[in-house]
Amino acid sequence: MQQEVDASRIPELTQVIEQVMAEARRAGASQCEADASLQRGLTATVRLGEVDTVEYQRDRGLGLTVYFGKRKGSASTGDLSAAAVRATVEKACAIARYTAEDECSGLADPEDLAREVPDLDLYHRWELEPDQAVELARGCEAAGLAVDPRLTNSEGASVANQRGVRVYGNSHGFLAGFASSSHSISCVLLASQDEDMQRDFWYSSARDPVDLEDAAAIGQRAGRNAIARLGAHRLTTQRAPVMFIPEMARGLIRSFIGAIRGGSQYRKSSFLLGASGQSVFPAFVQLEERPHIPKGLGSSPFDGEGVATRDRALVIDGVVQGYVLDSYSARKLGLKTTGNADGVHNLFLRSSQAAPTREQLLRTMGTGLLVTELMGQGVNPVTGDYSRGASGFWVENGALAYPVHEITIAGNLRDMFKSIVALGGDVDDRGALHTGSVLIGDLMIAGE
Fold first, then answer.
1. For residue 96, which of 32, 73, 221, 330 is within the disulfide window of CB 3.0 to 4.6 Å?
2. CA separation, residue 50 to residues 44, 76, 105, 137, 140 (Å)
3. What's residue 1's pLDDT?
4. Same domain membership, residue 375 and residue 281
5. Within a domain: residue 2?
6. Res 3 pLDDT > 80
């Protein structure tokens, strides 16, 4: 019987990390850090009632970095045997001896490392056999297709069950690990009417399977979404208010986070260069990072360098409070790490004003575009220029009038952030970035 990938495997990975440290010391390295992990998963996909794929995932990995003074070398392996670990350390040491010195390289400072590792309730096993996953996906798709006879095709329904464990350690004496899980159900359906064909989807994801949305409800939501898009047509080119549903609004915030990352700042490749202390959003906009939310999909007790994660405000009353930093970028900027070596953890975008419902936000907009899908990667992180393909619904008198597609929305992110009119209370909590709809006062819409 295969051993489960959970917290019981932490001692095994701890031994691997300890061997790495011992081998690095013997090789003469002044500092060393290593991250070992085990992952296991099952994904089943059904299309039109037939099994499309059933995939098992079993991964193990070790990544390590050694320092000889200010010279750095990194290596990785998928083999955790003693001989492979020894060879991987040797490779990293060989690389380090030939690299140039970098005064900002090195481990995180000892005083920044996590002293306590809180239990964030991140691991929840899902006892799911392949045939059960297939039936769950089949039921999800069938419920969706039954919504309307115009739902004539499917790109499939999937059920995914992932869990893993990781241990990180470094030569400052830090050594800790934790187990985590992630589960999801999704469905993509196609609707057709005459010559028109439209697709849409829905999904649910959670650390704990009991927190997943009902599979049938997911399929039905995907079906209703696809049907609602039938009859879409293009708009004439114009300027108008644009409202992003939460799933699309996330992209705007990701662009903001990318612009205030330490790497973007010290490389001077950000449209928000030197933005700390600047008013970038309207005064009602607040953005917080909360890494210790129980069961949070972005929760973590420490970052990729062992630095303690903690609650912090990134934006207060529209003003940027600081950057997103790991130890290296912090040193380049003459600052302190913010515990974000592996990204941000559980962001919450909210308004200091009363958050309207989506219907209220549509009435506030009056006439404009509701964006439900974005296409392309037309965002310039250096200039902030924004141009992406979009589809959604035209809104008149605060109500959905008809679906639209094959249009492009364009602007500059600096102007777009400043032009936010309101943040909705329809918060989507299915990921690590929690936001409601975002209404922007004016954007160029390119169509016919």
1. 73
2. 11, 39, 53, 10, 13
3. 41
4. yes
5. no
6. no
Identify whether residues 256 and 189 lie together within a single domain.
no
The fraction of the chain above a pLDDT of 70, given in percent, is 100
Residue 111 and residue 334: Cα distance in Å, rounded?
A: 16
β partners of residue 62: 36, 77
Backbone angles phi, psi at 348, to 5 degrees: -125, 110
- What are 179's strand-pairing partners? 165
- The dihedral built from the CA positions of residue 172, 335, 254 and 297, taken in this order, carries a sign that is positive
The Cα–Cα gap between 30 and 66 comes to: 8
- Span 73-85, mean pLDDT? 97
Q: Which of 33, 17, 34, 24 is nearest to 93 (CA)?
A: 24
309 shares a domain with 194: no
Per-residue pLDDT reduced to its tens digit, 163-208: 999 999 999 999 999 999 999 999 999 999 988 999 999 999 999 9
Helix, strand, coil fractions of the chain, as percent rounded to 5: 25, 40, 35
SS3 195: coil
Which residues partner with 268 through β-bridges? none
Which stretch of DSSP H or E encloses residue 151? strand 151-170
CATH of the domain at 216: 3.30.2290.10
Integer Cα distance of 206 and 326 in angstroms: 27
Largest CA distance in the chain: 73
Total number of domains in the chain: 2
**pLDDT over 80 (residue 96):** yes
Q: How confident is the model at residue 2 (pLDDT cuts 50, 70, 90)?
A: low
Task: Kindly state the tokens that stand for 412.
Answer: 């500059």
Handedness of CA 304, 305, 306, 310 (dihedral sign): negative
The answer to whether 171 touches 89, Cβ cutoff 8 Å, is no
Mean pLDDT of 340-349: 96
Q: Nearest Cα to 255, choosing from 366, 346, 385?
A: 385
Cross-strand pairs, 394: 369, 402
Q: What's the mean pLDDT in 407-414?
A: 96
- The range of the structural domain enclosing residue 84 comes to 7-228
Residues 195 and 89 in one domain: yes
Question: pLDDT tens digits, residue range 382-399?
Answer: 999 999 999 999 999 999
302, pLDDT greater than 50: yes
